Structures are given as C-alpha cells and as structure tokens.
Amino acid sequence: MISRYKRFFAALAVLLAFGLAACALPSPVPLDDGSPAVASDFTPNDGSAPQSSSSHLVETTDMAGNSIRMNAYPLSIVVLDPADCEILYAIGAGDLVTGRSLSCDYPEETNVIPYVTVDGKSDPDLVLLRQPQLVIMSVEDAANADLVNTLNSAGVTMVVTNAIDVNNMYGAINLLGIVTGHESEASALVSSMITAFAEIQTKVSQHSETVYVEYAPIADGLATAGGSTIVNSLLQLLGYHNEFEDQAGYLSVTQDQVIGRNPDIIISTAESAIAEPVDPTVTQDPAVTPDPAAGDIPASVSEILSRAGWEGVDAVKNGLVYYIEEGLILRAGPRVLDGVKALYQVLYEQTQP
User: Fold this and answer.
1) Where residue 54 falls among pLDDT bands split at 50, 70, 90?
2) Closest listed residue to residue 251, CA positions, set 287, 214, 285, 226
3) 243: exposed, middle or buried (C-beta count within 10 Å: 0-12, 13-18, 19+)?
4) φ and ψ of 298, to 5 deg
5) Which residue has the higher pLDDT, 40 or 234?
C-alpha cells in the first residue's frame, strides 16, 4: 500500500509540473488570524515513517501539522467545513457523516443530517451528541478553544484542513481519503481534477485585468476574497488578477476601497434570485445585460449595476458584472471544476454562466 502512495504522489508531482506549468500557483502566506501556514504542495503522510513503536491503522499528519493516529476507520463523522463535506461525499464517505455545520449544505443528501451549529458557531455539546469518532474542521474551527478542548477531553480525533489553493485542495482530498479508508477514490478524484485543470489551461492566456469577487453585499457589509483563497487560486490559474490578492484571506472592505481600486470585472457570489425581467420596450445594451437572450439578470448583478457612486467603476461602466454560485468558487471541493468553467465563461466569453 505504501508503494502505491509513493507512485501516486510521484505521478501527481509530474502532472502538476507539466499540466499546470502554464500558470504556476504562488506559495501561500499565513492567514491573518494566526492560523498555521500550509505548504502549497501539501501531501499527507503515507505512513511510511511510523512516529512511534506502536502500530496504527492510520498514521498521518493533518494540514495544521497535527499527528493523526487511529486504530480503525471512523464509523461516525462530524464535518464542519462545507468543502470537506463535499469531498467526503465525492469520495464515497458521505454515509459516515452523522453531523454537520449549518454551512454544509451540499449535496442534497446532507439535508437529513442534524446540525451542530448554534448562532453561527459549532456547539461542542451538539457535536458530542452525534457521538463522532472523527471531527473534520477548518483552521477557523480549530481556533475555537472551547470546541477543541471539549473534543480532546472526550477523546475524539480531530482532523484540520486548510485548502487555500488548488494544490492544497488535492492534499485535503487525499488526507480525507486516508482517514476514512477511501484512498483509491480520493486518488482517482485528484487525478481527474488534475487532468481537467490541465485541459482548461491550454485555452487561457495572461491578462492584466483585475477581478473583484464580492461574497457579501452592501446590505451585509461588503466582503471579498483576497489572496490565499481558493478563488484567488482559480483566477490565477485562468490568467487573471484578483483585485485584493495583496491581502490574505476573506476580508471586509468599504465601498471607497472598491471604487478606488476600480476593478475591471466584478463577480458576485451573494444569494441571487432572478431580478425583474428587463423591459422589452427599452432597447438594452448587450454589454450591460449579462444574459440578454433570457430577458432577465441575477438580482445581485442588478443591484451592483445600480449602486450610487459605482457608475465610474470600469466593471460597472462596461457591464462586466456577473453572478456565480458561492459553492463553486469559494469552496475548495470537487465543484471547483464547475466553478472554473463558470469563471472561464465570465472572463473569456463575457457571458453570464
């Protein structure tokens, strides 16, 4: 089994070197919240170097550097990060999930799984109520001392992920495959994603234009994704610049900051119902209507295009404002393939996905 891992990671390295060479991803920097840095080429320990004289079925390291040792694969998992939840289902481990955070809403099968979230935070008592043998969490959840101390006291194994770029996402998928006993499925998923990304990169070129990604609208307090985020990695893969790539993580911004930076393209991931149909008696500028054939536009796009004071922003002025579902580009999971295709439509075809 060990030799199989070594062959896989060797092949992965070759594919990354050649398939992704056209647009190499940058090394990540530590998050502002003090979370541990993660190497952009993270791969989980394959168990070839035991850390003690004892024997464990699973012996690896998570993405926060924690040693993970388990004598059996878990039969009950609580997952707190939505991307990790999607990965578990994609590798065939979804039936092990017995508890989830409020944000874990995909795939549809998750709808029947109880929440462990109260007031937007993971509640330690609710987590333990699900009797988990393994809790999978992000670095943000790992910073919740009450949660971590409670799980430690109960003897529950915790695995921390931190997929801040495409390469880290591959590592997270393989890590979750290792700790759930679904290594082969995880390896197959990574291989298919590498091939798909390499194919997409044959069609891209380098651009100087900048993209502002807005995941929280004015009503909720503007927020965007900066550097060291999965969407930043996807934009770079497609040859474009994230407007706030100079600031790491997810951050609050002001209208003045966005207007002052004057992005060339705006992408909203805010929940978006369809706005009122465009008035057919009024001649529409196709550059301003993301989907003129449909006769309507996403509500979040309409709201941005009509913001007072934003009319001078190049993206608004040129009608280059689009909506993409949050789960496709802000979650480092299998659906980023759909996300990168949607981004390609926006960036290269200038059409609303």
Assistant:
1) low
2) 226
3) buried
4) -60, 140
5) 234
In the numeric block, which tokens belong to residue 318?
């040129």
Helix residue ranges, H only, 137-276: 139-142, 145-154, 166-180, 183-201, 230-237, 255-261
- Three-state SS at 198: helix
Do the Cβ atoms of 93 and 176 come closer than 8 Å? yes
pLDDT-derived band at 238 (thresholds 50, 70, 90) equals very high
pLDDT at 42: 78
Strand order in the sheet with 97-100: 97-100, 77-79, 134-138, 157-161
Q: At what angle do helices 183-201 and 230-237 cross, to 10 degrees?
A: 40
Per the CB < 8 A criterion, the answer to whether 292 and 283 are in contact is no
pLDDT surpasses 60 at 241: yes
Q: Which pLDDT score is estimated for 186?
A: 98
pLDDT of 308 > 50? The answer is yes
Count of CB atoms within 10 A of residue 57's CB? 11
> Under DSSP, is residue 169 helix (H, G, I), strand (E, B) or coil?
helix
